[in-house]
Amino acid sequence: MSHTGDTAMTTVLMENLTSAEHAVRGDNPPQRILKDISLKMTAGEVWSVSAPKAFEIRLLLEIMGNIRPYESGRCVLVERGMIRRKRRLLRHVFYVGATDMFYGTMTALEHLMLFFPHAPTALGRLNAQACLLEELLAHELGHIALTRIDRLASADKIALALFAATMSDSALVIVNLPEIPPEDRLLPAFSALSRTLRKGGKTLVLGTRDPNLIDAACTHSAFLAGGKILYQGKTETLLNTLDPVLLTLRGTGLDALEARLSPLPPGYSFQRAEDTLHILCRPPEKGDLEMLYKMIAETGIVPTAVEVHRKNAANAFKELLKQHDLQDDLLP
H-helix or E-strand containing 57? Predict the structure, then answer.
């Protein structure tokens, strides 16, 4: 399917999709778990799909992967329509829904050779292994190359699956394991893999409840709660418009500094955490750093450090749930 100019292929299109499954929330009668879901994803994007409840993520991505039927609406994958009640894995979708999809007695390198173009000679196989090892190292995954797969941690197996996806011809890659955090040590690998998948024109969808992974690897984010999407769009926009923290001050004398800065102008507030003082602004885009620096200087109190806060998904999601008066249980 060819696309010319600046028009990227639409890999996922959901319109007013409603799930067949029901759930009971509070004292209300049973309701559809997912209601009127509309999403559009295009080639070269890396999406996170997050929610306070992992089962909402799993259900949405199972529908997206054509594993579970849906009740009403429309779902189109890689510009091919789906039969609403037909459940099978599609050839153009690389779906990761478990960590036992590999041959456990093989090493990661041996398993990846199964995906490599056929090398009929011993020398050809040796060269193929050398190429794969080089690519694993380039993606911060050298540590798994010679390890038996059944001895790898679950997060390493997810990274291995993503590496295999870079070698596939699938246009859409879905990782539906929201219960398994990627572990901070693997964030550089996930970031490198997401760049490679983007460069290859693929769409990667990560079902995750880990904001650190979103910060490290995702160009776009979708967040749902109570069966509805509360945000979808660029991750950068999410962070800049929802994370309210502007400045982080560290050191001693913060109690005195907070007292001297009070009261802050309308829209600003403090947040304390041990030896750290955060200054927040709602809405975040109205924050005036120059004004705050001047106010701090005028107190005559010099903190050990004054840092411009790096926006992150954890704060943005907390703020999003707060705006919708929903319980914040996205993070441990």
Answer: helix 54-64
CA-closest candidate to residue 258, choices 287, 310, 295: 295
Query: Helices 254-261 & 289-299, crossing angle to 10 degrees?
Result: 110
59-109 per-position pLDDT tens digit: 999 999 999 999 999 999 987 766 555 566 778 899 999 998 889 999 999
Alpha-carbon gap, residue 145 to 152, rounded angstroms: 10
**pTM for the whole structure:** 0.90
* Residue 158 DSSP symbol: H
Angle at 54 between CA 47 and CA 181, to 5 degrees: 70
Q: Which domains does the chain have, with CATH numbers?
A: 10-234 (3.40.50.300), 244-310 (3.30.70.100)
Q: Catalogue the E-assigned strands of the chain.
A: 10-19, 22-23, 31-32, 37-42, 46-50, 70-77, 80-81, 93-96, 172-176, 203-207, 220-225, 228-234, 245-250, 268-273, 276-281, 305-308
